[in-house]
């Protein structure tokens, strides 16, 4: 899809929809683990998987951030029509991301116990969580490969193929979860094995598709050259985007650490609540990522008018969708929690409902923040996204740790939307100041 010429509203929706559906399927990996583990193994196992999910989200954000940053470079070169520079950018980015993945994977196994101790994992679930992460870390290479090729295809307007491979692997993950946990009685290890097998299916499948379908983007061995300017541009975009994604999820990890100190009941409630959150605001998160590609393609094509019009349209769509989702989550908080927690677990159930009633009411804040992230990243200014992330997460973490001693877990839940709206205020102020400068420059010409 050429996002520099299409109808903006229709183009954004059609381009974003496969990304949204794809990431919803990706969440099925952990969702199926959570449902099956919580229902058939127990609350302690659910708490272990939930805590491991926060850690895995942080690690995945590193690979995703690198790939998303590289995708901005790919989109700009695609918008400019510079295919040779696009080819070199793909080669440099792939080598960089795979190298970082391998080094990080080694470090995780070396420092596994210190990481788990840092997370303040209770002794009651420590062994279960260690078994789970020992296995799940084996799938990080597959996650990295999938995210790279997914971002690459989306950057040139193809958002459908990543959805296809995720659909295949998500179905496989559910089937293997049921087989390994219910059929073979492998417990929490079975859930982890099912997940990594499904991840390798999606990673290997999308890479083989790319190599067969997009041969023109693959340089011949004799054309492999090191280009310091491309590496400079790539590092500037990828590392800053990686930093933004990592800061965002590291803040979540710190919140998880605080939640862990309240014990298995709060941990289980938070694990279920975060899964509901993920599905609730994932569409606006992915819409922000799709919007980033729209912005970067039009930045490459020098279509400032479309960027400004697109920002207005995207903001309106994000606010409306987020408001509807908040209403639905508030009204149906109890049945949503009961998807993960049995009715007899009343303490876990009501703790999770309080979380959704407090935090889930304000999804507009996180929706607009994801849109701002996408805008500044697409403009080639990921540093601003980093600042907004640090502001949002810093506020969230500091308030959570300050309020928790007196308000308990409710203080943690209250801190989350406050951080969102503070970052929104700064981000929109930044956008309007920048737009004013552009308008004055045009008037001056």
Commentary on this structure:
- With 445 residues, the chain is mainly α.
- It has helices spanning 8-40, 43-80, 83-110, 112-118, 123-136, 140-155, 161-183, 187-213, 228-260, 264-300, 304-331, 333-337, 346-359, 363-378, 382-407, 409-444.
- Helix 1 runs antiparallel to helix 8, helix 2 runs parallel beside helix 5 (123-136) and helix 2 packs parallel to helix 10.
- The radius of gyration is 21 Å and the shape is globular.
- InterPro entries: MATE_fam, MATE_MdtK, MdtK-like.
- The chain crosses the membrane at residues 12-29, 41-74, 86-111, 131-153, 160-182, 188-211, 311-333, 353-376, 383-404, 410-431.
Q: What Rg do the Cα atoms give?
A: 21 Å
Outline the low-pLDDT stretches: 440-445
Q: Which word captures the global form?
A: globular
Provide a count of the helices.
16
State the order of secondary-structure elements, H for helix, E for strand: HHHHHHHHHHHHHHHH
Helical/strand content category: mainly alpha
Largest beta-sheet details: none
| Range of strand content | under 5%
Distance between the termini: 33 Å
- Work out the number of β strands: 0
* Average pLDDT taken over every residue: 84
User: Into how many domains do the coordinates divide?
Assistant: 1
- Give the helix proportion (percent range): over 70%
Transmembrane segments: 12-29, 41-74, 86-111, 131-153, 160-182, 188-211, 311-333, 353-376, 383-404, 410-431
Function: Multidrug efflux pump.
Protein name: Probable multidrug resistance protein NorM
Subcellular location: Cell membrane
């Amino acid at each position: 899809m050429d996002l520099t010429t299409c109808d903006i509203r229709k183009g954004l929706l059609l381009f974003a929809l496969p990304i949204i559906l794809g990431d919803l399927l990706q969440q099925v990996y952990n969702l199926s683990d959570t449902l099956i583990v919580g229902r058939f193994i127990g609350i302690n196992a659910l708490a272990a998987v939930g805590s491991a999910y926060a850690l895995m989200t942080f690690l995945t954000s590193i690979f995703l951030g690198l790939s998303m940053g590289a995708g901005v470079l790919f989109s700009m070169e695609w918008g400019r029509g510079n295919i040779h520079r696009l080819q070199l950018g793909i080669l440099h980015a792939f080598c960089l991301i795979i190298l970082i993945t391998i080094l990080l994977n080694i470090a995780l196994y070396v420092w596994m116990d210190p990481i788990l101790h840092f997370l303040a994992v209770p002794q009651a679930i420590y062994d279960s969580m260690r078994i789970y992460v020992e296995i799940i870390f084996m799938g990080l290479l597959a996650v990295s490969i999938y995210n790279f090729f997914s971002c690459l295809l989306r950057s040139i307007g193809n958002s459908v193929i990543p959805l296809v491979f995720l659909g295949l692997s998500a179905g496989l993950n559910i089937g293997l979860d049921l087989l390994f946990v219910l059929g073979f009685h492998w417990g929490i290890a079975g859930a982890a094995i099912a997940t990594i097998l499904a991840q390798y299916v999606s990673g290997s499948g999308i890479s083989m598709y790319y190599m067969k379908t997009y041969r023109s983007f693959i340089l011949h061995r004799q054309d492999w050259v090191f280009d310091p300017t491309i590496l400079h541009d790539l590092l500037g975009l990828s590392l800053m985007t990686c930093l933004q994604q990592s800061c965002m999820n590291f803040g979540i990890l710190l919140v998880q650490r605080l939640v862990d100190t309240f014990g298995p009941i709060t941990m289980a409630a938070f694990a279920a609540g975060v899964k509901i959150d993920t599905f609730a605001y994932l569409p606006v998160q992915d819409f922000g990522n799709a919007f980033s590609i729209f912005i970067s393609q039009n930045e490459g094509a020098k279509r400032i008018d479309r960027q400004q019009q697109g920002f207005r349209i995207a903001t309106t769509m994000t606010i409306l969708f987020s408001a509807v989702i908040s209403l639905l989550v508030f009204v149906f908080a109890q049945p949503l929690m009961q998807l993960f927690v049995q009715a007899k677990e009343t303490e876990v159930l009501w703790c999770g409902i309080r979380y959704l009633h407090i935090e889930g009411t304000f999804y507009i804040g996180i929706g607009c923040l994801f849109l701002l992230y996408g805008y500044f990243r697409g403009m080639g200014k990921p540093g601003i996204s980093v600042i907004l992330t640090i502001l949002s997460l810093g506020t969230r973490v500091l308030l959570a740790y300050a309020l928790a001693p007196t308000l308990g877990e409710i203080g943690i839940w209250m801190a989350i939307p406050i951080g969102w709206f503070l970052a929104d205020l700064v981000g929109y102020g930044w956008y309007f100041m920048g737009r004013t400068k552009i308008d004055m420059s045009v008037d001056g010409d």
